[in-house]
């Protein structure tokens, strides 16, 4: 299994933009996951490990798009009364296999194979039916209501490329081709640690001056949505030796180590020194808000990300930078950019230029389908209630300095960011 080089995340010391940070992730990292086969029913949200080609036409034979009668168009145009004898029936799974003579048709049902010597189909509601004869309506075109073999896929066609994340529609396509086992990349193993002597687990006693650890539980859910195999290392006390040993152990058993908290430069922040003792650390100074410098590095061949301790900053940085890193490590070649909604600002504010900002927002539509975007009343990075209140993030570009009520804004729903 390939691993990451020790200088993977090295970057200029100057402040970099969001695009530069994402480009570095794309350029400096690659797939580290091995290949395995999974049952088709378990392949959703997995990343395809091989190109898939069609081994036969789909559909394999011409078939009917409607319930009706199959006939030869040349017979139809040759008969002024448009009257046909009914030779039999063709149903899905029970095709008509007889030979047709001139002036004969076959009753056919949706999805059934088109009989030999038939090339067109009349809808049953347009046909005048008698005992063993029918009269077709006027004006039917050659090939009416006929679906052709290979209309969906031709034999030998490249259907899905390696690196494609399998959504329900791709799983359905694989099923239509008869695949019951699918080659995929193994889910990457992620170690998740929280740091801080003030942290306690939910359910434990909460001494004065302590807080419950929320980041680890929030990030665990996010990483599960991103398709990771997460190992929870719990709360690691903020001492150099404890952190160094925990990070080294996590790196030896996983593909990516993620911590939250303790990446600042204070006397009680030991993550930086612990990672440098176990491997290599590079701080990315990214022009963003919320979020302090993002700590990235490697311990051996395992990637390391140190997220901020404030919950909002931790979640936003994970969405914006850990998500594409996971996609690269997982072998995903064509990650989908999140879809942005457009709406009118329901607020006014001033913004510092030169940095990208993400505000917690709420998107709603009026009866005319016009989107309205509100922002949370406070910009504090420690307010988990702001994440609960919001249904997505408002993105403000670097050159934006003023937002006036009614301005057009870009809004990214959590449903897109968490996918």
What does this entry show, briefly?
The protein has helices at residues 18-28, 73-78, 168-176, 215-225, 240-253, 271-278, 311-329, 384-389, 414-417; strands spanning 35-39, 52-53, 63-64, 68-71, 83-90, 104-108, 120-123, 128-129, 133-135, 146-147, 158-160, 181-185, 189-195, 199-200, 211-212, 229-236, 256-260, 280-284, 288-289, 294-299, 302-307, 341-345, 349-350, 356-365, 371-375, 392-396, 402-403, 408-413.
Q: Can you walk through the features of this model?
A:
The structure is a single chain. The protein is an alpha/beta fold and 419 residues long. It folds into three domains: 160 residues, 3-Layer(aba) Sandwich (Molybdenum Cofactor Biosythetic Enzyme, Chain A), CATH 3.40.980.10; 85 residues, Molybdopterin biosynthesis moea protein, domain 3 (Molybdopterin biosynthesis moeA protein, domain 3); 77 residues, MoeA, C-terminal, domain IV (Beta-clip, Beta Barrel), CATH 2.40.340. Helices cover 21% and strands 29% of the residues. It contains nine helices and 28 strands. A hairpin with a 2-residue loop joins strand 20 and strand 21. The longest helix is centred in the C-terminal third of the chain and has 19 residues. It is elongated and about 90 Å long.
